[in-house]
Design brief:
The complex is a heterodimer of chains A (120) and B (252).
Chain A lengths: L6 H4 L17 E8 L7 E8 L2 H13 L6 E6 L31 H11 L1
Antiparallel strand pairs in A: 1-2, 1-3
Chain B lengths: L1 H25 L8 H27 L5 H6 L10 H4 L5 H22 L5 H29 L3 H19 L8 H6 L6 H18 L25 H8 L1 H5 L6
Helix pairs in contact in B: 1-2, 2-6, 5-6, 5-7, 5-9
The chains are: A alpha+beta (120), B mainly alpha (252).
């Protein structure tokens, strides 16, 4: 039945009764954190499917660490991540307006320039 | 001069094993059991091709032809690979067991070669050590997972192990230059390697709830190192070289 230009596909005997998989019907997911160099922060890079932490690490290594530099990888079971709810995202609504919390709000260049001048 | 011939024989069998298992494992690309595993298995297959290329490059410096010619222009009788790596990919059970049995042997072989008096190969072994370390981590995790999971997965892994073990013993087929390689401190020899391999894989197989076939059934599949192959190698080579042979002089 198979008629592909890929000989590998033609070698497969697909069963007639292929049933569709349900989402997450077998394996749980793991959040992957990637550290580029020792001492740097681990950064969240994505998710892998795996039945246990050992396999999750093995999958994460090639899925997220096969290019560029890697010093270390963490995996954390997705269900162990405790998070805010999107229904409560109004707790963040006014945050961007609070510019007085940003260092840019301080006017110090005059003082710095004055200090530099004095040092000369 | 004999030493050179002996080294070449050693390098050819290592590189040919890697090229052929790399090609075989790449046949899973796009067909793997889950996306992450598809990526991992394909990536390791590429690693194997890269390792073989590095060794063909050493052979090239010793007067053999260039890597592309060695990989694509020889027929099956000119290959030195063992029968294990030639076999079709079968089911994922067989491919994983082959990966486990072969890569542990390769890991130990490279560890041995790190101390080789032939500097190009000791440098190369040091360079690729980490790559192969990951390959055996991957194999061990899968073996434990499937050996200890369901009755079906356990039985399939045991059957695959039973069916591949004699071919895996063929990895360690003795060559004519063993004594010379040993006395020149180039390579300690297949027999020692085989013992190390058995010591290494046995506890992992046991902790995966699997059993090595009984010793009185062991019959190494020999001949690969001297160009006698299974019926599966030539079709593999034909497929692998199909595009290359359309125009061998093409610039890629």
């Amino acid at each position: 039945m198979n008629n592909s230009i890929d000989p590998r596909v033609n070698r497969i005997n697909f069963p007639d009764d292929i049933t569709e998989k349900k989402e997450l019907d077998q394996w749980i997911t793991w959040e992957v954190f990637h550290q580029r160099k020792r001492g740097e922060q681990h950064e969240h890079v994505g998710i892998v499917h795996a039945p246990n932490s050992e396999m999750a690490l093995v999958m994460a290594k090639e899925t997220f660490g096969r290019r560029g530099h890697t010093a270390n990888i963490w995996v954390v079971q997705s269900s162990h991540v405790y998070s805010t709810g999107y229904e409560d995202d109004d707790i963040f609504t006014t945050t961007p307006e609070k510019i007085y919390r940003e260092a840019g709000g301080y006017k110090v260049m005059d003082k710095i320039n004055k200090y530099k001048k004095e040092q000369k | 001069m004999d030493t050179n011939i002996a080294i070449k024989e050693l390098l050819y069998k290592i590189a040919d094993d890697q090229l052929i298992i790399g090609h075989r494992n790449s046949e899973w690309t796009g067909l793997g059991p889950i996306l992450e595993e598809d990526i991992a298995f394909s990536s390791m297959a590429q690693d194997k091709l890269g390792q073989s290329q590095a060794i063909y490059n050493i052979l090239n410096t010793m007067g053999e032809q260039d890597a592309d010619t060695l990989a694509f222009m020889r027929n099956s009788a000119q290959f030195h690979c063992c029968h294990l790596v030639e076999m079709p990919i079968g089911g994922y059970d067989f491919s994983l067991i082959r990966h486990f049995l072969f890569d542990h042997a390769e890991w130990l072989r490279f560890n041995m070669l790190i101390n080789s008096s032939f500097e190009p190969i000791s440098k190369l072994a040091r360079k690729y050590r980490g790559e192969i370390k990951y390959h055996i981590m991957h194999a061990d995790v899968w073996l434990k997972q499937l050996g200890n999971a369901t009755e079906e997965s356990h039985n399939r892994m045991q059957t695959a192990l039973d069916n591949s073990f004699n071919m895996a013993l063929g990895i360690f087929e003795n060559g004519p230059y063993q004594e010379l390689l040993k006395s020149e401190k180039i390579f300690d020899g297949e027999e020692i390697l085989k013992q190390q391999w058995l010591e290494k894989i046995t506890p992992i197989i046991t902790s995966s709830n699997l059993k090595l076939p009984a010793e009185n059934t062991w019959q190494p599949a020999l001949g690969g190192r001297t160009g006698t192959h299974t019926e599966h190698l030539q079709p593999l080579l034909d497929e692998m070289t199909e595009v290359f042979k359309i125009d061998p002089s093409a610039e890629w």
